[in-house]
Amino acid sequence: MNFERCCDYFRPSLAGRCREDTRGANEGCVGYNRREMRFAVIVFPGTWSDGDCYYVLNDILGQPTDYVWHRQADLSPYDCIILPGGFSYGDYLRAGAIARFSPVMGAVVRQARAGKLVVGICNGFQILCEAGLLPGALIRNESLQYRCQWVNLRVENSDTPFTSACRQGQVLAIPIGHGEGRYYADAQTLARLEAEGRVVFRYCDADGKATAEANPNGSAHNIAGIVNEQGNVLGMMPHPERASEALLGGEGGLSIWRSIIGASAPTAA
After folding, report:
1. CA-to-CA distance for 30 and 246, rounded, in angstroms?
2. What are phi and psi of 199, to 5 degrees?
3. Predicted model pTM
4. What is the CATH number of domain 3-264?
5. Known catalytic residue: 241?
6. Catalytic residue (one of 18, 129, 239, 251)
7. Domain ranges of the chain
8. 263 pLDDT band (50/70/90 cuts)?
9. Catalytic residue among 122, 129, 166, 204, which?
10. Which of 130, 156, 180, 241 is catalytic?
11. Distance of alpha carbon 20 from alpha carbon 143, whole angstroms
């Protein structure tokens, strides 16, 4: 049994089953509103942060959220698409290289080009780069070590759908967990990202200074997150879903989720 068929065996009819479960769960949430935005959390073979993303969006924030198995080809019902962290297809060849060819990615590309919001976290960021939705690449950490730790991020651009609830220059404490998180792009691409305000998050110290010591992986320009030209696709290596509940050590990630909800929630009729 190959890797993908094994995952299918243990997770049968994932998307359809979770859509049914989601409706019942959301109707019990305080403040649930059928007019609020709907999230798709994409699940590839090897994804493992899908549950964390679902929990934050569905249980903490009360947003209608579905797991969507990577074989689905229609994402039109959703307002925002989340590509979570993990090790899609075991990170064979390189991180995100195989997931980029999953059937769902055609739908992700179509929805991104139509202006829908797309968020790639960690492995999701790697997949978005492999799919050509974001420039550059995520390569092996400069230390050649897997890094799992809390980091500080400085909000470089608060005028995006992902940071509108943040202050310009605000420092967010959010954890990372990756071995290939070092952002790389050629000098021309880096200059363009900086000039166009497309660097959204930058690794910094607690005082907001972008230093080499605050850079956990050697990313160029201390880059932790970027957006596409249209501004509707975000890729970031840190995990906001792991910083969305005080019980887990911090709530810095909630500013990002609330920004997205505020930017995308349909207006009432």
Report:
1. 19
2. -80, 110
3. 0.86
4. 3.40.50.880
5. yes
6. 239
7. 3-264
8. confident
9. 122
10. 241
11. 44
